[in-house]
Specification:
The protein is an all-alpha fold and about 300 residues long. It is built from 15 helices and no strands. Helix 4 packs parallel to helix 7 and helix 4 runs antiparallel to helix 11.
């Protein structure tokens, strides 16, 4: 009887694993398909794109669209802007998030509960887009008043706050044993030395995870960059440049989604589709994230668990 119950349990576990792996495989394919389609469209001919023949594999393979992107100086200028905003934006936001989280994790901080409440309050209620836009434009005026005219710095300095990431770091710092900090103080360590030599090394998984969050948000940031930098094309990140390319060759508001005259003019000049150029840009734009993510992935689950659960 015991043997039969054991076999029944093993069978149910096997069924569960089969169903779970099947669902995960389908979900993974759903996430992977847009990238596969983008690659296929980037290497397909203009006629194949027009007829909707591209589904999974490239049709009438050509690399002219990619070559156009690779030889486009404006594209690489905007690409460099995105690298600039991502690197400095991540360093800036991560730096003061660590400082803020470290302070909020200390029970000796005067008014600690009130500061933590105000931090969480910003997650519940938002001022809205219009006040936020007004604040950013006033920040632009301040920067220009002190001689900073490149609006990339507005995106770097004025858009770094994220309450969720600070809470993740705060919870991770609260999990560091107080005995280690006391031992460091007895050895004569300063506050900054305790932060850099004790808390940061012991919370590197959460810090790496938060850095990934900040990096992806800066790399993919479009809306506020487009609003703040609307007249400063040389400061555009790559996402705004791609959107401008779409706006130039596609009538987004049209009933049929396409401007026939512009596309007819395009087709008379080039053998590849404007859509192929857009997908080529998209593929180039996601390469850095795809390259960096595998190195940070090992910290991801651990970092979220350490920072998201308060003991």
């Amino acid at each position: 009887m015991a043997k039969a119950n054991r076999r029944k349990t093993e069978t149910s576990e096997l069924i569960f694993k089969i169903v779970a792996y099947f669902i995960l495989t389908v979900f993974a394919l759903m996430c992977l398909y847009p990238l596969i389609y983008a690659l296929a469209s980037a290497f397909s001919s203009g006629e194949a794109i027009k007829q909707g023949s591209v589904i999974l594999w490239p049709v009438d393979v050509q690399g002219d669209a990619f070559m156009r992107v690779l030889t486009d100086n404006k594209f690489w200028i905007n690409y460099a802007n995105t690298l600039f905003v991502t690197f400095f934006g991540t360093v800036w936001a991560l730096g003061y998030s660590i400082l803020g989280a470290y302070a909020l994790s200390k029970k000796r901080l005067l008014g600690r509960h009130g500061w933590n409440f105000f931090l969480v309050f910003t997650m519940w209620f938002s001022a809205g887009i219009i006040p936020q836009y007004t604040n950013y434009m006033n920040t632009v005026g301040v920067f220009q008043g002190i001689g900073i005219n490149d609006l990339k710095w507005t995106v770097v300095l004025a858009m770094g706050m994220n309450a969720t990431n600070i809470i993740l770091l705060r919870n991770s710092f609260e999990g560091v044993p107080s005995e280690i900090e006391e031992a460091a103080r007895i050895d004569g360590a300063t506050e900054m030395q305790i932060l850099t030599k004790v808390y940061i090394p012991m919370s590197k998984a959460t810090i790496a995870t938060v850095a990934l969050f900040f990096g992806i948000s800066r790399w993919n940031g479009y809306f506020w960059a487009a609003k703040v930098m609307s007249d400063q094309r040389f400061s555009w990140p790559i996402q705004v440049y791609i959107r401008d390319f779409l706006k130039e060759y596609t009538d987004i508001a049209g009933s049929d989604g396409l401007d026939a005259d512009k596309l007819a003019t395009w087709d008379s000049l080039y053998s590849y589709s404007a859509t192929s150029v857009v997908y080529s840009m998209v593929v180039c734009a996601i390469i850095p994230i795809l390259a960096i993510y595998p190195f940070i992935q090992k910290y991801f689950a651990k970092g979220v668990n350490m920072g998201g659960v308060k003991e």
